[in-house]
Amino acid sequence: MAKILVTGGLGFIGSHTVVELVNSGYEPIIVDDLSNSDPKIIDQLAKIIGYKPPFYKLDLCDEQGVKELAVKEPDIAGIIHFAAFKAVGESVQQPIKYYRNNFYSLLNVLNAFDGRPVNFVFSSSCTVYGQPDKLPVTESAPVKAAESPYGNTKQIAEEILTDMQKAGSSYKVISLRYFNPVGAHSSGLIGELPIGVPQNLVPFITQTAIGKREKITVFGNDYNTPDGSCIRDYIHVVDLAKAHVAALKLMETETFKGYDVFNIGTGQGSSVLQVIHAFEQSTGQKLNYQIGPRRDGDVEQVWGDVSKSKNILKWQTELNLDVMMQSAWEWEKYIAQNPL
Ligand code: UD1
Question: Rounded to two decimals, what is the model's pTM?
Answer without folding.
Answer: 0.98
